[in-house]
Amino acid sequence: MRIRSVNSLQVNDRLAKAIYNENGQALLNSGVLLTKTIIDRIKRKGISFVYIEDNETKDIYVDDVIPEHEKLKSVMEIENNFGKMSRDITLGKSIDMDKISPTFGAIVKNILHGIKDQKEVISMLSDVYCYDSYVFQHSLNVTIYSLALGNKLGLNDKQLNELGMGAILHDIGKVAIPVEILNKQDKLTDEEFQLIQEHSTIGFDLLRKSQTISLIAAHCAYQHHERLDGSGYPRGIKGKDIHLYAKIIGIADVFDAVTGNRVYRKAKLPHEALDILYAGVNTLYEKEMVEVFSRTVALYPVGLEVVLSNGHVGVVARQNGEFTTRPVVRVIEENNIPVKPYDLDLMKQLDITIVECEVALTQKMVGS
């Protein structure tokens, strides 16, 4: 399979991975042949990328950290629990965090099991969901990225479980923010932006009252928008005053926010998101953490169409361990001429590099 921008989809392309709505139901199943009507529908949903089948890449597949059905189940459980809390707040009811703690704990345990079994770096684009499920999908993705980074940093099992609970609940304060503000497509007013920023404090207040959720998790919700130089919120604390877990979650949060579909902008690719993180090294984020994260997540996910420095075009076939900038590429085109596909290992061909992505080129052309 290969990843393709929705702007370059063609009639009779065959979908390789299903597209889901916020309820975990397949809007389009894998194997569906795309028509103009279906392509237009995908675009209207605001989706940036899809996975397509073809003969050149039929043996290329994405090795998920957790199986697709488990992802769906987890997202739906997060949504159901967040939704109930939001309704309770609207009705003026108190929220019993202790009742939902086991559900989130089980999700964290399942992800951690997948992380420990994962031999390669995480090769994952944000899954194709509709916008309504962004907060719930984001909570799951941030947990996956946070646990992967924490594991690489050498945290023990107790620490990883604490980190996982903090990550999955980092945005819980958004249950008190009106949906129309969270999903607003236009620029937020100063008052609306300030209200969204309050989710950190709201989340802390919700979690710190729990008897079964660690106070550390509450501080993760409180601090994940704090930055090394004090430019973050809500308190503007600096450096060592920010908890280790909050620093990890802050990196995962930004990475997934940039690579995820949002109502107000298209998703960026992982290597573009990493550039944003590196731009904030030693001012916003710990240098060591960003460097380790760059060896934890595939910068060029499996299935991505790339342009090489020698002018050849190919599809990322597999990763090369922690050498995330040098995957194995299935070359399918040389000098604009299709060729019999062959694999090129960039770890063995050090004079050749990835210089561009076909998806990014398409997005730029459409946006220009």
Q: How would you characterize the overall build of this protein?
A:
The protein has 368 residues and is an alpha+beta fold. It has two domains: 2-62 and 302-367, Molybdopterin biosynthesis moea protein, domain 2; 68-294, Hypothetical protein af1432, CATH 1.10.3210. Helices cover 43% and strands 12% of the residues. It has a five-stranded antiparallel sheet with strand order 9-8-7-6-10. β3 and β4 (26-28) form a beta hairpin. α2 packs antiparallel against α3 and α3 (97-117) packs across α5 (157-168).
Task: Tag the structure with descriptive keywords.
disordered C terminus; 13 helices; 5-stranded antiparallel β-sheet; hydrolase; 3-stranded antiparallel β-sheet; alpha+beta; 10 strands; HD_GYP_dom; Hypothetical protein af1432; 368 residues; Metal dependent phosphohydrolase; Molybdopterin biosynthesis moea protein, domain 2; globular
